[in-house]
Amino acid sequence: METEIIVALITGIFAVIAAIITGILPHLLEKKSRLKSKISTSNGESTGKFRRFIILVNKYYSILVIGLLVIGLLLIGIAIYSIYTQPTDVDIRFPGNGKVDMWEWVSGTSQHIPDDCKLWIVVRWDSLYFPMVDGVQTRSDGTWMYNTSIGQKDDAGKVFEIIAVLADGSAQAKVEEWYKSSSDLYHLPSGMTQYSTVTVTRK
Predict the structure, then answer these.
(1) Residue 72: which pLDDT band, with cuts at 50, 70 and 90?
(2) C-beta of residue 120 within 8 angstroms of C-beta of residue 135
(3) For the chain, what percent of residues have pLDDT higher than 90?
């Protein structure tokens, strides 16, 4: 997707440049025609042909310039719009749905996370939710990895869900309060949005 946006942006810029050059070209040719007329008055036929060419160019160049400008500006507009409207997404790539150890490096990808939100890993067992201690640091390319605790030592055979969520500031504060209270958490705090889930079984 990002490659298509870059191509559209570059193509649009080149189209605008081409429009500017095309708009200037007839004026340059007109000046050349006047200069040619002054220097070479003996060859009237050649000068006449050149002038007819200039008239033809002047007749159609405005249509070409407007067309190139519209195409260029349209492509630039589409590229800018796409940059600012690409959807937020978070995906768990590892582990898949299968068996896991008590501690697993959960990893995945993300894109366009809002500035006021943080990626968070939450483990669910039965009706209980267990947010991890802190948020996940994403790399510049959107990939991420987090060492995740899944159950206790005697939880072999139990089924858990690993959930990737985005938490806004209020949700992050609620998680901190939950850790201090040590109470059970039966639902995700408001301000947490679930994006990706895998179902795993403890080894």
Answers:
(1) confident
(2) yes
(3) 50
**CA-CA-CA-CA torsion sign (54, 57, 60, 63):** negative
Of the pLDDT bands very low, low, confident and very high (cuts 50, 70, 90), residue 42 is very low
What is the architecture, at CATH level 2, of domain 89-202?
A: Sandwich (2.60)
Give residues with Cβ within 8 angstroms of 46, minimum separation 6. 40
* Domain range list for the chain: 2-85, 89-202
Report the alpha-carbon distance of residue 152 to residue 167 in Å, rounded. 25
pTM above the 0.85 mark?
no
In the numeric block, the tokens 């959807």 are attached to 87
The two structure tokens encoding residue 138:
């994403």
CB atoms within 10 A of CB 115: 5
